UniProtKB/TrEMBL annotation:
Keyword Transmembrane included in the entry's annotation: yes
Keywords, ordered alphabetically: Membrane, Transmembrane, Transmembrane helix
Protein name in the entry: Uncharacterized protein
Taxonomic lineage: Bacteria, Bacillati, Bacillota, Clostridia, Candidatus Scatosoma
Transmembrane portions of the chain: 17-36, 42-65
Length: 171
């Protein structure tokens, strides 16, 4: 299960790494393309070189900074899922970052869905024990035959013994 939780953040880190490398290569390849295209009057190559250089020049720094941020998020997810550090104070001590920064990183991890199955309550993190309504079992007593039975939250309460329908609680 921990591998599934790490999978989403690892995928995001991998995508960002690929983008960063591609933009870096575009920057490096763009300048020779401009020179080659201009000297041989191949305007398409020169235009592509200009485009590569501009995208690489402006995109590379932003992509690498974003990659670093995603690696930081991955480290927080690892601390929670693998090291079982479930308090902001403990994560902060482990990572050597201020608690304020850890809170912001945790907010981002929860917002991006990198910590499914966990809930944050203030400065503590715990496993989400809540069940979806379709998974919740309810107890019922048949008003006609008196039999005790259970039904799922999304089902109608029908007695399995006499077939009579009961009313759902709270309705």
């Amino acid at each position: 299960m921990d591998a599934e939780k790490m999978n989403a953040v690892n995928k995001a880190v991998r995508k960002q790494l690929i983008l960063s490398v591609v933009l870096s290569c575009m920057l490096v390849a763009g300048i020779p393309m401009i020179i080659f295209g201009a000297s041989n009057r191949i305007w398409l190559v020169m235009g592509a070189g200009i485009l590569f250089t501009v995208l690489g020049f402006y995109g590379t720094p932003m992509a690498w900074v974003s990659y670093g941020n995603k690696v930081g998020l991955r480290r927080v997810v690892y601390a929670v899922t693998r090291e079982h550090l479930l308090a902001v104070e403990k994560i902060s001590a482990q990572l050597g970052k201020p608690e304020k920064n850890i809170r912001a990183l945790l907010d981002e991890c929860f917002q991006k869905g990198y910590l499914p199955g966990y809930v944050r309550q203030g400065d503590t993190i715990s496993l989400n024990e809540a069940k979806a309504p379709e998974e919740t079992l309810h107890a019922a007593v048949c008003p006609y035959c008196g039999a005790k039975y259970t039904y799922r939250g999304t089902e109608e309460p029908v007695c399995p013994y006499c077939g009579a329908m009961s009313e759902k609680k709270g309705e």
